[in-house]
């Protein structure tokens, strides 16, 4: 059985312009802009690169925090960590030789017309900010409660109660949890709706980046396959949530003519695995939107005569279209049986797959001939299906027929994983 490429389902994220709007509407952005303005003319720093006029800095921070802000050792420590985050992410620049601080490259990026650059700068700042809010070392984000909290919320995929989330976290006192929730809310990463909480679009963007960094994997964003070849597109769509397939397909078709897209998909259908093949047939059929229009339907009708894909295409034809074509050939029907069995086996144990596909409980004189025909399909997954029958079929006559058919194919028998 050939190896199938592994793809992850794509996530839907706002455009850079939409993300930048969300950034600018967040309370945290207001605080950062105030600090940039505070150092714009240059502010003296001490030998640690922190504000020399600490009371003035603390006062500026307090003006943008809660009413009645009190200068406590804890508040001072938090304000200085916030300063350090701005310096580490180049929002502020410290010139140690001159003992001065002023707006850094990050501040310029936040104000520039390039939405993507501004969003990327804010992303880096936010991640550092979340780590700083936990009071942990900057190189230990796995121990950051704020990051753990928002990723857990993101994983739930919708609104969830705070109690449900914190029941699985070593959060300590309720006041600590509330502190982190407030930080996430001020950053525009989560929103509260009564007793429920959810991740905002900006929060999803940050979680996407956090998960990529943590796993070392590239998690695709909806629309990222617009310029891909058809084989790559179909393999990717096989992993997509159904509600996202149409949008990805629409973006792909817009980068080429409909006619070119149809030809590319027709070629790719012969090269990909069962799930990707079904995705391609669905695109031609217009199952997820008429992105390929009549050209796609005409191509699907033409496929009904194909010796391999004919039965699969025939199953997606309308009653009127079926009257235009012959019934699928036996070869095409056998090919379809292997495709369908492999798709079923991906979702259930092999014994259940054999039941699901109707290979169990059939007349004894019918099954040996059917099973023998599997070896003649030329389907790359036929070996896999025959091995599954040999290992898991409950009827001896079928097992023996599968073993006889298997001997005509290359490679030793082995129980499929």
Task: Please describe what this structure looks like.
By secondary structure, this protein is mainly alpha-helical. The chain contains 22 helices and six strands. It has helices spanning 16-25, 27-39, 54-63, 73-88, 105-111, 115-133, 145-156, 162-166, 174-186, 201-215, 230-237, 242-254, 258-268, 274-285, 293-303, 310-314, 319-322, 330-345, 350-356, 367-374, 382-392, 396-406, and strands at residues 43-44, 92-95, 100-103, 160-161, 190-193, 196-199. The chain has a three-stranded antiparallel sheet. It has a three-stranded antiparallel sheet with strand order 4-6-5. The termini are close together. The relative contact order is 0.07. Residues 137-142 have low confidence and may be disordered.
Q: State the helicity in percent bands.
A: 55-70%
Strand content: under 5%
Largest sheet: 3 strands, antiparallel
Number of helices: 22
Secondary-structure element series: HHEHHEEHHHEHHEEHHHHHHHHHHHHH
- What is the distance, rounded to the nearest whole angstrom, between the alpha carbons of the first and last residues? 11 Å
Mean pLDDT figure: 89
